[in-house]
Give the backbone structure.
Amino acid sequence: EVQLLESGGGLVQPGGSLRLSCAASGFTFSSYAMSWVRQAPGKGLEWVSSISGSGGSAYYADSVKGRFTVSRDNSKNTLSLQMNSLRAEDTAVYYCAKLRSMDVVAATNYWGQGTLVTVSS
Amino acid sequence: DIQMSQSPSSLSASVGDRVTVTCRASQGISNYLAWYQQKPGKVPKLLIYAASTLQSGVPSRFSGSGSGTDFTLTISSLQPEDVATYYCQNYNSAPSITFGQGTRLEIK
């Protein structure tokens, strides 16, 4: 059974940093691309970042480019999202998501339960 | 960036009705289109990928069609458990991966 367990969310002040982690199990982690998708309270889904199965290719939404960094450790089956220079508009539930293939050009077939990030003073 | 426009933004239908949700891309995306269902308080669930391929375990009353810029999600006979918000997603190319704004479906 595929399991994705996010951690690291919480309350942070504007301009601060936070690191999210996602522990994956139930599949061959290195064979699949992964993504972060967020959902602001009461709003729709927003793609944040994707990384290929090998970790060699990473992509970001314009709204987070230059501030967020995605990475993965295939030896530990872990996906991470380093978030710097956080803004109020980054407040959202952040979902770790598994894609259907090693390439990022794929649909998402599994989602974690999400971790809430609140940016506020 | 590729923009995805869904319509309607909300709809109300009766049990047993045929329901259609439309998604339009601002430029051609071939068939790199997925549909997700998100029930209140739950995580999204993949229904359809590659515009028309039903994800394993999804009821056959759900179907998808389209290619290029215009896509459709159809529920052939609406059931009470289908109350949810439905999102389309373009995954044609990174970093232009975008979701539609969502369609909230309610039972009349």
Remarks:
- The mean pLDDT of chain A is 97.
